[in-house]
Amino acid sequence: MADDEAAEPVADEPAPEETEEAGDDEADPELAEMKRRVQEMEDEAAKLKAMQQELAEGDAAEDGGEKDEKKATDDKSIYVGQVDYEATPEELQAHFAACGTINRVTILCDKFTGRSKGFAYVEFEDAASVPGAILLDNSIFKGRQLKVSAKRVNIKGKGKGKGRGRGRGRRGRGRGRYRGYRGY
Question: What gap in Å lies between CA 100 and CA 125, rounded to an integer?
Answer without folding.
Answer: 7
